[in-house]
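dumping this here so i dont lose it
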């Protein structure tokens, strides 16, 4: 998975956590475990196990996938609802080839949408900080993204999508 796709997946999970963590009460605290095996053509396949625990204001989860060739990929993450209505999150993954990445940040609601401040670091210590603001107007959705990397590169973009 590319760094961009991974950042998107982590961000989507954090936004989802923003809307679900605050609604959970003590009676709903729970842990779930799910296992599955997938087999395809020519010996391709894997087994995986996911465990997730939800408590009032928090979620912690981990997944491990072992491929038929013996390679293993893992990922784990957590999200916590903060008293100000924001959600802080962290996550880590290690791919089947051994590469790893970690992330942490905060997602919060704004008057016209939501914003996310994130930092991503790979196994070599290279990092990127991304500030993303999503706002909704009468005309469409506006996404502004500012990125800076540990090697000094910075980018800024704004994209508007009409309804």
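and the seq i came up w/
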């Amino acid at each position: 998975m590319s760094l961009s796709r991974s950042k998107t997946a982590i961000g989507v999970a954090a936004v989802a956590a923003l809307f679900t963590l605050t609604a959970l009460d003590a009676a709903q605290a729970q842990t779930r475990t799910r296992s599955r095996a997938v087999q395809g053509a020519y010996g391709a396949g894997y087994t995986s196990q996911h465990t997730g625990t939800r408590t009032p204001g928090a979620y912690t989860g981990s997944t491990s996938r072992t491929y038929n060739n013996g390679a293993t990929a893992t990922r784990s993450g957590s999200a916590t609802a903060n008293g100000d209505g924001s959600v802080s999150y962290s996550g880590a993954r290690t791919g089947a080839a051994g590469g790893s990445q970690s992330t942490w940040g905060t997602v919060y609601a704004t008057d016209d949408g939501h914003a996310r401040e994130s930092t991503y670091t790979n196994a070599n210590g290279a990092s990127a900080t991304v500030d993303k603001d999503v706002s909704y107007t009468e005309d469409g959705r506006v996404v502004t993204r500012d990125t800076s990397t540990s090697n000094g590169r910075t980018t800024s973009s704004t994209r508007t999508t009409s309804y």
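The chain has one domain: 3-162.
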